[in-house]
């Protein structure tokens, strides 16, 4: 055996592609273009079906203008100056009020929106509103009522079938789903089309329509609010928005009326008290004058009386303000049980205090709305409670400050009264007594007149209370649907149609455990690659023939060229070993055809069928396998007896495996194999050994020392990636002489990734 320390061939050189890495990456996907076309077509068909079954959605819009003092939209009406304290409108706050569940709950109740009616159409079902012939009112529903739509039909003009159960119309009925009434809105007959009815819990209906409602100002400086609602039934959407605007105005009027009513109640209480006091004083004056015969006071007494009356009038104003402050303080302290009410502020004109009361009312309103949809433990509710607490503290602080100031003023007026009284004491007793009584009469009279005036003002305000908003545009729906948008649906479904096969291919590639490309081999091992052979579903056993110019035949000839056969001037024979990692990687096919290509060079070539466990070569040519390699190794036959010519190839011979021996590995380990190869070297220029896979048995490693070179076959899509590590280990440990790799069955479009030159292929008209 002539072992060589260097390769007798040139490494296979891959032509560097001029194509971009992106194109190289996408080429495996282009190979599966029929799947992309099919998936895209199915996705577009799905989009078409979706558009047929999806009920169109319309957009309904309305606009509302608020009176916002900050934004200069307050109307200066003649009644404006009569208004007492009332919360000032701010667009930001009103947006929250309009979008509150409290108002929408009223709308859902008024319009019975917790029940939706559908009519079957050619494609799916379509919701109806005003066209529904019935009106289903649920008095008490069981949980099953809200889980599934009711199938409603009309067997006669006086009865209705709900889920195949017949009930009378316009009466209270007991059903397995609860107690309800079905009222007729239009004449019913047996020809009335069946319907589907969906009943929702009140809270679910409120949430549904609030989710479709959008309220926003037209700009940051505008007090005009645009209300937008999307709904499949334009008439229903318009009714919802108009009802919502009406409920908002009614709530604003009720809030303002509540303030006026509280003020009127306060004035009435004061009037009743002052009226009785005034009556008592007037009786005293009359009685005193009639008893003593006094008709009028002197000029000095009149002057003193006028001064005292002025001082008393101011003292009364202070007293009224102190009383209002006391009521306000009581209101703040007791407000935990009276949330949502508003205090009377008659006589108070401090802007800081009124602002704090305004803020408190807004916070109370916000808390009232929030508590309807959440619990006391909600963090947002706790934040509002803290703000309310802080505002109350500020109000109490202001009340204390004002009461302190007013108390000092009251003390001054009282002191001044005492001075006046000391002067009055100098007046004769009868006149002084009359003056005192007259003075009390004047005080009570002025106070009574003042309260009467305020009561009339409040009465006028209460009767003329109007909303602080104005409807600019009533609700109106769009002419054409706004959803679904056909081009968007087609684009989305088309994108899904492209992503599905892309993800499938990418997932398959990610889960792959087989060698799929040249890079898989080059990343793991440094074993040189001798050449590549493309994949073909049906190929002959011997593709290398004198007149065969197929791609595979030329690729095998290229491998022969890489062996540098023509550069060996010596007549020394070459022994080549073919093996692989597992069975089915094509080593027998490649070894047989490479031997054929060498034989076509008129070089004596013999191939040994060393895979005695699974021999296949002799079957390809129907060569008798009753005597072969195993017989020679056992000393039962000579070389001449086991050499079999391959038909059509004068210089090509085959040594079949012979009968399967019980111990092939031991048989190959004997001295006979060495003698056989020495004899074959003398008779043939090329000796090819088709050995079993190294990952299965050790036969290939046993005969490896007798080979001059080793060709390891890796098949695209068959060879496990894990086998490459074993190959690299064998290479580093030099278990085989001059090892190189042949990539077999490089598949389809992936061949482009190996940079085969299409121009070369076309110019020579390969088949």
TrEMBL record:
- Single GO MF descriptor: non-membrane spanning protein tyrosine kinase activity
Q: What CDD domains would the database entry show?
A: BY-kinase (cd05387)
Per its record, how is this protein called by name? Polysaccharide biosynthesis tyrosine autokinase
Its transmembrane ranges are 33-53, 487-507
Q: Give the main EC class.
A: transferase
Q: Which UniProt keywords apply?
A: ATP-binding, Coiled coil, Membrane, Nucleotide-binding, Transferase, Transmembrane, Transmembrane helix
Q: Which residues form a coiled coil?
A: 264-291
Q: Which Gene3D superfamilies match?
A: P-loop containing nucleotide triphosphate hydrolases (3.40.50.300)
The segment(s) forming the Tyrosine-protein kinase G-rich domain are 431-509
Superkingdom of this entry's organism?
Bacteria
Report if keyword Transmembrane is assigned.
yes
Which Enzyme Commission number(s) are listed? 2.7.10.2
